[in-house]
Design brief:
Length: about 190
């Protein structure tokens, strides 16, 4: 039985770049690249353009660097969502003007809606799919990833059922909508 089958029923199908690490499966549920689609695994539609196909043709080091870039972007998006959930009520209390920006708040709400919609539709985040596709392509080069990035992968990718994430992101969406109502954004004054 493979490492993926014995340690994680929801594992990412690939060459098993996490075999040597002591924690349980920390990557999203996905399937092999032949079934990836435009909206993630197990859905219909076209394939993700570019990144996965490019990864199959590139050297391991280049795939590793791209995986690190995708992980960094993914972490920044997560940080933006969490920071917004904290900054909005705190900023309303302390009088921070940026929390009333319609552009900032719209971007925050839009990302939260996109994440919640992906989970309701049973889809894996496209950034996770790209990230693990690139790491899988990197093969042994992934063993040379800095420890901080391995920790970031562990923090960001939990081995829990999709139902948990669906409920979690719907709660985040509800909280964000309540914040929109209690601390409404304002358009900049023209003058």
């Amino acid at each position: 039985m493979s490492w993926r089958a014995s340690h994680c029923a929801n594992s990412f199908a690939g060459t098993g770049w996490l075999k040597k690490w002591p924690w349980p499966c920390v990557h999203p549920k996905a399937v092999n690249s032949s079934t990836w689609s435009r909206f993630g695994p197990h859905t219909r539609g076209g394939r993700w353009p570019g990144v996965v196909e490019l990864a199959t043709k590139m050297a391991g080091d280049r795939a590793l660097h791209l995986a690190q870039l995708v992980l960094t972007v993914h972490a920044l998006v997560a940080l933006f969502v969490v920071a917004g959930m904290i900054a909005i009520p705190l900023g309303a209390r302390l009088g921070w003007p940026f929390i009333y920006s319609i552009w900032w708040r719209s971007a925050h709400l839009g990302i939260v809606v996109l994440i919640a919609l992906q989970k309701v539709l049973g889809q894996t985040c496209f950034l996770s799919v790209w990230e693990f596709g690139l790491l899988d392509r990197a093969g042994l080069a992934a063993e040379h990833m800095p420890g901080a990035q391995w920790l970031l992968i562990r923090v960001m990718h939990w081995d829990l059922p999709l139902r948990f994430f669906t409920v979690l992101y719907l709660a985040v969406l509800a909280y964000t909508l309540v914040l929109w109502r209690l601390v409404p954004p304002r358009r900049a004054c023209q003058g």
